[in-house]
Amino acid sequence: MATSASSTINFSTKPSRTSLSWKTRLASSSAFAVAAVSPRRDQRQYPRFVIFSMGAKPTVLVAEKLGEAGVDLLKEFADVDCSYNLSPEELRNKISLCDALIVRSGTKVSREVFESSGGRLKVVGRAGVGIDNVDLAAATEHGCLVVNAPTANTVAAAEHGIALLTAMARNIAQADASVKAGKWLRNKYVGVSLVGKTLAVMGFGKVGSEVARRAKGLGMHVIAHDPYAPADRARAIGVELVSFDEAIASADFISLHMPLTPATKKVLNDETFAKMKKGVRIVNVARGGVIDEDALVRALDAGIVAQAALDVFTVEPPSKDSKLIQHENITATPHLGASTMEAQEGVAIEIAEAVVGALKGELAATAVNAPMVPAEVLSELKPFVELAEKLGRLAVQLVTGGSGVKSVKVTYGSARAPDDLDTRLLRAMITKGLIEPISSAFVNLVNADFTAKQRGLRIAEERSHLNGSPESPLEFIRVQIANVESKFASAISDSGEIRVEGRVKDGIPHLTKVGSFEVDVSLEGSIILCRQVDQPGMIGKVGSILSEENVNVSFMSVGRIAPRKHAVMAIGVDEQPSKESLKRIGEIPAVEEFVYLKL
């Protein structure tokens, strides 16, 4: 008989000696920081412990211009070397003498940089939000923490978004250029009013919510789309959360504040432009890649999009002969979102504090890469770590509607005593799976709880004690999301939550339950879930459609309530089927609903 014990994340819990790094004191009076670093997968050796003296000042290399206040803060703790415009070779030559490196977006911190450090480099600080220029995998392999400064430029970016919004509506840039060219074309540059117009804020995080506040002050009706935005925070500033399609279809103006992820890359494309109100106006101060720039030119030429104001581009700087830049209905600025004196100073202080804290051995809330885990822990939990992340990814992709994910319950089925099962890493990977597919956040053991709390996501853990051998750490992991709608209704359990459950079989994660339906499919590649009337030939019909497109089926499983009743078919595929193939599957008469889920 199984018994269970519940616990909820305590966000104020301090790291214990089971943390991956801590400070200690040797016999002398000098303080030392100790970090456990596991070997690479291709190395058969024990974890190594890196010990560096906290008595001597560490060296921080500042490779790009940093605000004076930040440099002064660094100098209180470390020796600071401000060397700007280093070539890649010069950076590699210097890095072996440095404990920390601070960059902006112009310096590439490549694998070669980490290899050249000889293990001395402990922290890389990115003065800003994006970390595209830092090789995170190499940093993690070399035991180097990467931190960023995600909050200091929030107001500056929001203000720039509003500046572009108003300048676009009143043709400020075009009229200015016209007057300076000696022309006086008052009738040509008649604008549009903002009062009473609907603004869709796509991404209701820090910057998006600040843009919404300011737009409300301009008399605009503001709606927003963000699957993680707390509804109460939106209501507090008079913003209605809606679905993606509803937002783009009803907006007069669209302001983009979403991160660039595989899910958001070119999210504004020919298909989505076709759903928009004719004459819509678009502002982008987020990431250039979220817009298909060729499709935007076509939408401008067709009159679907009346104007666009862009601060970011897929390639920066864009080419001089870019059709987008040269289009008369485009207002462009050279990535100025964070470029105010106040924001630059704030970023400098924020990154300096993060780097100094990391050098002191403190856990950093703005860490963006996974810390090293002792090899013996990874060895035992590795397949369950993979299972945990993939269950999180599956669960969040099943969510639809504008209410957002707020409450998640995780159940661990195990024959081990609660004290013999440390679930911090598993919880972090579930959080990673829930948040990363629709966010720019990098979730790891260090920042998982902080990131969840920041997004209003409450994760409750429950241990279900099973009778049996404690040789395996876990029998199953179950993830439930409460108070949400599902794009696949069969994923809703009898108690009303989205429910997915999985096990590890022969070292491979498997999905074993969706809602109330038992299935058994390997969590490799991607998955198609179909709810169908249980009747002969269904597997063949779906398989034939996929085989015509040369989509390889890795696993197929059918779970049913009773013969000839309803069943859920889970299909593992190695390649992504085309939209036409998925449409054909949905048109099979016995198929009542289906969903394609990326892993």
Automatic annotation (TrEMBL):
<comment type="pathway">
    <text>Amino-acid biosynthesis; L-serine biosynthesis; L-serine from 3-phospho-D-glycerate: step 1/3.</text>
</comment>
<dbReference type="Pfam" id="PF02826">
    <property type="entry name" value="2-Hacid_dh_C"/>
</dbReference>
<comment type="subunit">
    <text>Homotetramer.</text>
</comment>
<dbReference type="Pfam" id="PF00389">
    <property type="entry name" value="2-Hacid_dh"/>
</dbReference>
<dbReference type="GO" id="GO:0051287">
    <property type="term" value="F:NAD binding"/>
</dbReference>
<dbReference type="InterPro" id="IPR045865">
    <property type="entry name" value="ACT-like_dom_sf"/>
</dbReference>
<keyword id="KW-0597">Phosphoprotein</keyword>
<keyword id="KW-0520">NAD</keyword>
<keyword id="KW-0007">Acetylation</keyword>
<dbReference type="InterPro" id="IPR015878">
    <property type="entry name" value="Ado_hCys_hydrolase_NAD-bd"/>
</dbReference>
<protein>
    <recommendedName>
        <fullName>D-3-phosphoglycerate dehydrogenase</fullName>
        <ecNumber>1.1.1.95</ecNumber>
    </recommendedName>
</protein>
<dbReference type="InterPro" id="IPR006139">
    <property type="entry name" value="D-isomer_2_OHA_DH_cat_dom"/>
</dbReference>
<keyword id="KW-0718">Serine biosynthesis</keyword>
<keyword id="KW-0934">Plastid</keyword>
<dbReference type="InterPro" id="IPR006236">
    <property type="entry name" value="PGDH"/>
</dbReference>
<dbReference type="InterPro" id="IPR029009">
    <property type="entry name" value="ASB_dom_sf"/>
</dbReference>
<dbReference type="InterPro" id="IPR036291">
    <property type="entry name" value="NAD(P)-bd_dom_sf"/>
</dbReference>
<keyword id="KW-0809">Transit peptide</keyword>
<dbReference type="Pfam" id="PF01842">
    <property type="entry name" value="ACT"/>
</dbReference>
<dbReference type="GO" id="GO:0004617">
    <property type="term" value="F:phosphoglycerate dehydrogenase activity"/>
</dbReference>
<keyword id="KW-0560">Oxidoreductase</keyword>
<dbReference type="InterPro" id="IPR045626">
    <property type="entry name" value="PGDH_ASB_dom"/>
</dbReference>
<keyword id="KW-0150">Chloroplast</keyword>
<dbReference type="InterPro" id="IPR002912">
    <property type="entry name" value="ACT_dom"/>
</dbReference>
<keyword id="KW-0028">Amino-acid biosynthesis</keyword>
<dbReference type="GO" id="GO:0006564">
    <property type="term" value="P:L-serine biosynthetic process"/>
</dbReference>
<comment type="similarity">
    <text>Belongs to the D-isomer specific 2-hydroxyacid dehydrogenase family.</text>
</comment>
<dbReference type="Pfam" id="PF19304">
    <property type="entry name" value="PGDH_inter"/>
</dbReference>
<dbReference type="InterPro" id="IPR006140">
    <property type="entry name" value="D-isomer_DH_NAD-bd"/>
</dbReference>
<feature type="domain" description="ACT">
    <location>
        <begin position="527"/>
        <end position="599"/>
    </location>
</feature>
<dbReference type="GO" id="GO:0009507">
    <property type="term" value="C:chloroplast"/>
</dbReference>
<dbReference type="InterPro" id="IPR029753">
    <property type="entry name" value="D-isomer_DH_CS"/>
</dbReference>
<dbReference type="InterPro" id="IPR029752">
    <property type="entry name" value="D-isomer_DH_CS1"/>
</dbReference>
